[in-house]
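Thread amino acids onto this structure.
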């Protein structure tokens, strides 16, 4: 018993260049249909099949591209990456500038508040000094 299912009624290839049409059923593969259809298979179809496979392979995989095209593509990719990094750096520097300005404004408000409190303290000290002047006249 063979390991994979094979129709035992299929005839082996004769010496001719092609086999007679026969009914085949497709049962394998995730996307294959389960319909039966008539096909004519060629004995020398192996080379044509591999040619089609290599065309599909080269379209999907860019291994046969011109080196100058590949170099240009890489250069564009590097430029795009550098531009993204520059944008990130610009945003970071803008954030740092905003934080620095906010810190300076906070310091200015803090200094203004300290100056206001110092004026109040100075006014209170003057008031106490005026009250203290008449003291000690009786000595």
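Threaded sequence (139 positions):
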């Amino acid at each position: 018993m063979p390991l994979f299912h094979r129709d035992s009624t299929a005839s082996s290839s004769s010496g001719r260049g092609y086999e007679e049409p026969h009914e085949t059923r497709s049962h394998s593969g995730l996307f294959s249909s389960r319909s039966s259809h008539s096909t004519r298979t060629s004995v020398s179809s192996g080379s044509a099949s591999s040619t089609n496979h290599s065309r599909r392979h080269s379209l999907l995989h860019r291994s046969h591209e011109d080196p100058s095209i590949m170099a240009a593509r890489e250069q564009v990719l590097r430029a795009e990456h550098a531009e993204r990094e520059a944008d990130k750096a610009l945003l970071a520097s803008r954030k740092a500038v905003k934080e620095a300005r906010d810190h300076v404004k906070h310091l200015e408000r803090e200094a203004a508040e300290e100056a206001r409190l110092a004026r109040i303290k100075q006014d209170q000290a003057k008031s106490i000094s005026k009250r203290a002047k008449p003291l000690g006249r009786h000595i």
